[in-house]
Backbone:
């Protein structure tokens, strides 16, 4: 499936679903992938998250984006392998990721 974006609707660590990039997995390697998030921060129904990949809209979720009015935001990026402990040396592959030009803009 390739590059996926976990969605957490209930403010817990249980994935509601995963949205995958609309590009074949074979075309996701050995190139830069541009990812942009647009987030309207709100603890009310007017919150919104949009995900764009390579300039194309991939996903929109409307609804609260903060647990409370005092909620904090943060961003974590990286390779997350929650099932690495279940892999054997035989089926584990090397993974490398590079990040460039990470920024946040607030309006």
Residues:
């Amino acid at each position: 499936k390739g590059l996926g974006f976990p969605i957490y609707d209930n403010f817990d660590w249980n994935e509601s679903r995963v949205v995958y990039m609309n590009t074949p997995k074979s075309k996701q390697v050995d190139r830069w992938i541009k990812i942009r998030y647009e987030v309207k921060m709100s603890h009310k129904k007017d919150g919104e998250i949009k995900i764009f990949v390579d300039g194309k809209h991939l996903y929109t979720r409307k609804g609260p984006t903060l647990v409370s009015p005092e909620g904090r935001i943060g961003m974590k990026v990286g390779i997350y392998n929650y099932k690495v402990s279940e892999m054997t040396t035989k089926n584990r592959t090397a993974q490398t990721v590079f990040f460039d030009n990470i920024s946040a803009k607030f309006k």
Summary: The chain has a mean pLDDT of 83.
